[in-house]
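Researcher: I'd like a structural prediction for the single chain below. Treat it as a standalone chain; there are no partners to consider.
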Amino acid sequence: MTIDEIKELIQVVRDTGIAELEVQRGDNRVRIKSATGTQDVTASAAPAPVTQYVTNGALSATAAPEPALAAKKEDDRNIVVKSPIVGTYYDAPTPGAPAFVKPGDRVEAKTVLCIIESMKLMNEIEAEIRGIVVAKHLENGRPVEYGESLFTIQPL
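Model: Treating it as a single chain, here is the predicted structure.
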């Protein structure tokens, strides 16, 4: 892995706000951690078990062992649920069915909030906390990017 590739990975961590990224190519492995609340990023080589994902046959990478949903504090108590993957956002299990949740609904941990279709797989996105859905940020059928806001939940 070249220094330019490592610099590019560091920039990805900064741009997306993810906490940690680990990449492995053959015997080479790099882990990049973002310091909490700052833009400082460190890179280090460390052996660790790795779950590999291949994108277009190229780079194998993993996100840190974090929850599936990135949660960000907003307005002190509210939690913003962000997309863990790129895909198409669906707010109901089938066309014409009622939405999984809407603003004002109470949710428990493990309540399905939506589905994101990625590579022909339907991925259920679940709430990680008990609370009230304050806002829904996307329209049904819209493409969604990694880290894009899906819902805002006020914890109970």
